[in-house]
Specification:
This protein is of the alpha/beta class. 62% of the residues lie in helices and 11% in strands. Strands 8-9-10-5-11-12-13 form a seven-stranded mixed β-sheet, with helices on both faces. A four-stranded antiparallel β-sheet has the order 4-3-6-7, covered by helices on one side. Helix 5 packs antiparallel against helix 9 and helix 13 crosses helix 15. The longest helix is centred in the middle third of the chain and has 51 residues. The protein is elongated and about 115 Å long. It binds adenosine-5'-diphosphate (ADP) and magnesium ion. The site of magnesium ion has 2 residues, from helix 10.
Length: 573
């Protein structure tokens, strides 16, 4: 698993190696300064220069002043390199995280709408959290590597200073690590339980917030709180466990560490090679290396938990990239006709159910207004999404201007089509941003022109900063009717030649409806409109009305020129 997960961080190998090298240099300088410290202590005890010349294989033939300065210098060098290592670590992790965030958002944006719509909000949110977790995986990887390298540097230095002493301590050290293994395993297990409960608690808070209106309406706060308390209580127990174990680990390490130094000294005394200074230096090195060992094993737990997410994230992004939008490169002029030829559609989410649309055979011509009626669930919105190329037929073809709908380029196709959904979504930004909707070609004049057309110009002008007033993510500032009209303005501002309105008047007040009718009438002179509606008043403006039932076209009624809705006649087909 380590090798597999490692692949995900390969792009930042340079940063990982650089941080490791700095940590190694830092630990080496720190280690040498510790050895010198013991030598200095020895001199201080003997009150004189030149008393000590030998320290393991090293001959320290320097004056006390030089040794002191050297020690101070090495402490500073050690600190500097360890700071550099931390800085490199932060830089590498953040750079990796930023790259993955951009990659994730790009994958989300490039994937087919059909695929994106099949993901639950939790799954979409998951992609973002998994970037965080995977980046924590990289962070702990570097931590483990750096702590392990530092540990090894100090151990190597101890070995060089006094091989016998070092080997004796290493032997006791191995016993110590083995003694701590159950603690590590226990901590990993309760860590897993705690994180599962954390997810559950998070979900409950989410539900409590989303169901807020109904919770108050039915007065069930106490019951919801009880359920939450249950989860929070079991959560608390697991977390307390985890904290206890995590807190115990350093105590156990340090206590056992001291014990093993004593044992090692006893062992060396019995073997008979006795060099007090070397022994002191090695003991100091080992005690220091213990804290690196502990840091490595601490980080290793996070590493095990988080590094798995790097693989998860990659799978998720792969799935998004596989379902990438697939456009041709033919340029599209204005939409003149759309023909569905035996088009069927089945939702990918539930492949076991029947087709939602069955062998639809229909031709629509611009300009004109086509009404789409039928009971709820008959497939009207699905058909609209097929016409807009948001979903692709599972059977049959769709021709636009007598060519396959997929042959057109993304740029030219998306310029020609527009949708007024039942509930337009506001984006973060001003009134102007919300109408232009990221399309840079839209001029300010056009934004005002369409606002006038849907009767919102006066309202927008009266806002504190006019068209530059921020609307925010909540729909607080606008009534449903105004929001719906803003949705129409957003659709009209690009001057589309094909426009779908999905129940645009279902929730409108009389004033808004009048504005919508007028806007529909204006655009219908220049474009092909498909309106999904139940309202007789809206149907009156339609040239043809297509009636859907259970995913099939039941009939198509045509209005002879100059007559009203009542005169709609079944089409001879
Ligand atoms: N995202 C979806 N996943 C699976 N089934 C869906 C989805 N959206 C709609 N359906 C199903 O497709 C059928 C037609 O839905 P829809 O086109 O929204 O109907 P209408 O707009 O006429 O009310 C319904 O049975 C509905 O349950
Ligand atoms: Mg619908």
């Amino acid at each position: 698993m380590f090798r597999f997960s490692w692949q995900h961080y390969r792009s930042h190998l340079g940063g990982i190696v650089a941080a490791g090298v700095s940590a190694a240099v830092g630990a080496l300088a720190e280690g040498i300064s510790l050895v010198l410290l013991v030598a200095l202590a020895e001199r201080a005890a003997n009150r004189g220069d030149g008393v000590l010349a030998e320290l393991g294989p090293f001959t320290l033939d320097y004056s006390t002043g030089v040794l002191l300065l050297g020690t101070v210098g090495l402490v500073l060098v050690g600190m500097t390199f360890r700071v550099i290592a931390v800085w490199l670590q932060a830089r590498t992790v953040i750079s990796w995280e930023r790259r993955e965030e951009v990659r994730a958002v790009r994958a989300l944006l490039d994937t087919e709408y059909e695929h994106m719509a099949s993901l639950s909000p939790a799954e979409l949110q998951g992609v973002v959290s998994h970037v965080r977790y995977a980046s924590e995986g990289l962070n702990s990887t570097i931590k483990v590597i750096n702590a392990a390298i530092s540990f090894l540097m100090l151990a190597a230095l101890a070995l060089v200073t006094s091989p016998v002493t070092a080997l004796a301590m290493a032997a006791v050290g191995a016993v110590l690590l083995a003694a701590l293994r159950p603690l590590t395993r226990l901590s990993r297990r309760s860590g897993k339980v705690a994180s599962q409960l954390e997810v559950e608690a998070g979900r409950m808070v989410h539900d409590a917030a989303r169901g807020g209106r109904e919770i108050r309406l039915y007065g069930v706060q106490a019951r919801v709180l009880d359920e939450f308390r249950g989860v929070a209580t079991s959560h608390a127990k697991a977390k307390r466990h985890l904290r206890l174990i995590r807190g115990l680990a350093p105590v156990a390490y340090q206590g056992l560490g001291l014990l093993f130094v004593v044992l090692a000294i006893a062992f060396v005394l019995n073997v008979g090679t006795f060099d007090a200074t070397a022994l002191g230096a090695v003991a100091l090195l080992f005690l220091r290396s213990l804290s690196y060992g502990q840091r490595a094993s601490d980080a290793q737990q996070t590493f095990v938990q988080m590094i798995a997410y790097a693989g998860t994230l990659d799978d998720e992004l792969d799935a998004l990239t596989t379902a990438r939008e697939n456009f041709g490169d033919e340029p599209l002029g204005r939409v003149e006709s759309i023909a569905l030829q035996y088009t069927s559609y089945r939702y990918p989410e539930n492949p076991s159910t029947d087709d939602t649309l069955i062998e639809i055979d229909l031709e629509l011509r611009a300009p004109g207004v086509v009404g789409l009626v039928g009971p709820s669930g008959s497939g009207k919105s699905t058909l609209a999404q097929l016409l807009l190329r948001l979903r692709r037929p599972t059977k049959g073809t769709i021709l636009v201007n007598e060519q396959d709908i997929d042959s057109y380029s993304r740029d030219t196709w998306t310029r020609e089509v527009a949708l007024v959904p039942q509930q337009p979504q506001l984006i973060r930004g001003s009134v102007r941003d919300n109408i232009a909707f990221f399309r840079e070609r839209i001029a300010d004049d056009d934004v005002e022109r369409v606002s006038i057309a849907v009767g919102l110009h006066d309202l927008f002008e009266s806002l504190p900063q006019g068209y530059d007033t921020e609307l925010g993510e909540t729909n607080r500032e606008l009534s449903i009717g105004q929001l719906q009209r803003l949705g129409i303005a957003r659709a009209l501002v690009g001057d589309p030649s094909f426009l779908v309105l999905d129940e645009p008047t279902s929730a409108l007040d009389a004033e808004s409806e009048a504005w919508v009718q007028r806007a529909i009438h204006d655009i219908s002179q220049r474009a092909l409109l498909v309106i999904i509606t139940h309202r007789a008043t809206t149907l009156e403006v339609c040239d043809r009305v297509v009636r859907l039932g259970d995913g099939r076209v039941l009939d198509v009624a045509t209005k002879p020129a100059g007559t009203s809705h009542a005169a709609l006649e079944p089409e001879a087909s």
